[in-house]
Write a structure and sequence with these properties.
alpha/beta, Rossmann fold, five-stranded parallel β-sheet, 14 helices, 43% helix, disordered N terminus
């Protein structure tokens, strides 16, 4: 499908690409359902291999996909699934690539042209005697996709064309690749039928923002924001913080942590200029720790504002700012991550406009680029 040819109310591709996400997810998952036989012909023989390692990789936002979904996928499938950024694989392949263990490297990439992503594929082939690749990418012309078509140990899965975001920051690209990978490895739980509920809930969230230049967590003169999340929601917190840094070009400082880890030093950054956003887990055990830290932050009364986001059915009994997700069936955390990212993306866009940036091209100096430049890939010295 061609990319939209009309801009949004804010006059940005970024808003258009945030708003299109639920429809893009359903297009991708329906496509995966239709080609399931092809996917299984590639994947199923690999999943029967003893000691198979599955590594989810990418650079920047693409790396955070693995951080968000790997914990749940590992538990749900019983497979050895880990998230390792290409930026780590490229600099330290000897620490992450095991010669004698079969490897399936799942590479995420909006453009598919990031130098580290291409290099990680080559290094994996060089290091691992039995290596396979699954490329999940948004760009048919990118190296990840094109190189996979020519390789006998690879399969390429292309996202809908509109997810090759025109805006600087990855929005529809990250979430569509997330949903698609979940569907590839856990089709019994994540497919076009079951994920319709996630898309509908996120659509309700987005429909609630008539003006993306308005308020998400209130409007205060904050100078820094902290996102907190447990388990896979830590990855969502990390991505949320990056969106703020990218779209405000660092004019609003952004941090991330787990609720339990935050006490161990990072909490020192909280002051009267700080906004704290806590993603509340849907799991009854984990949620206890999230609520403990949330209540502690409110008792401290140091932050300018502390906001909790949780499902309505699991609303914590606490005073203070609290966003309830639109009503829906009970969601697991890997599904709620999509909902939390909707709020984070809209907030980052609104803050970008608030500080006077152009969201589609926020780096006025040009020192930070949509596709990373200036990376020298050095030959392996072993």
């Amino acid at each position: 499908m061609p990319q939209p040819q009309t801009l949004s109310a804010t006059g940005t591709w970024t808003e258009e690409e945030i708003r299109q996400q639920p429809a893009s997810w359903m297009r991708s998952l329906t496509h995966i359902d239709n080609i399931r036989r092809q996917i299984d012909e590639f994947l199923q023989p690999l999943l029967t291999k003893k000691d198979l390692r599955i590594v989810l990789t990418g650079a920047g936002t693409s790396a955070f996909i693995g951080d968000i979904i790997a914990p749940w996928l590992t538990r749900h499938t019983g497979k050895n699934i880990t998230a390792i950024a290409t930026t780590d694989l490229v600099t330290n392949p000897m620490d992450y690539l095991k010669t004698d263990s079969p490897l399936l490297l799942v590479s995420f990439g909006r453009s598919g042209n990031s130098p580290e992503s291409v290099a990680a594929v080559n290094l994996a082939n060089q290091f691992v005697s039995e290596c396979y690749h699954l490329a999940i990418t948004c760009n048919e012309a990118g190296s990840l996709y094109q190189d996979s078509l020519d390789a006998d140990n690879a399969y390429a899965l292309l996202m809908p064309a509109e997810t090759h975001d025109r805006g600087f920051a990855m929005t529809s690209s990250i979430t569509t690749m997330m949903a698609s990978c979940l569907s590839v490895f856990a089709p019994d739980a994540i497919n076009s039928r079951t994920f319709h509920d996630v898309a509908a809930r996120c659509q309700a969230i987005l429909d609630g923002f008539n003006d993306f230049g308005g308020n998400v967590f209130g409007r205060e003169p904050w100078k820094r924001i902290v996102y907190l999340g447990s388990g896979g929601l830590f990855g969502a917190a990390r991505e949320s913080a990056l969106k703020v840094l990218e779209l405000t070009a660092g004019k609003l400082a952004a941090f991330y942590d787990t609720p339990t880890g935050f006490r161990h030093g990072p909490k020192s950054l909280v002051d009267g200029d700080t906004l704290v956003v806590v993603f509340i887990s849907s799991h009854p055990y984990t949620r206890q720790y999230d609520l403990d830290l949330l209540n502690e932050l409110r008792r401290d009364n140091e932050a300018l504002r502390v906001v909790a986001i949780s499902a309505g059915a699991d609303a914590p009994v606490v005073a203070g700012p609290h966003i309830l997700l639109p009503a829906a069936r009970e969601f697991i955390d890997v599904e709620q991550a999509f909902c939390f990212l909707m709020y984070a993306q809209v907030f980052a866009l609104s803050e970008s406009l608030h500080v006077g940036n152009t969201p589609d091209t926020p780096s006025a100096s040009g020192t930070v680029n949509r596709v990373v430049k200036g990376v020298v890939i050095h030959p392996w010295i072993g």
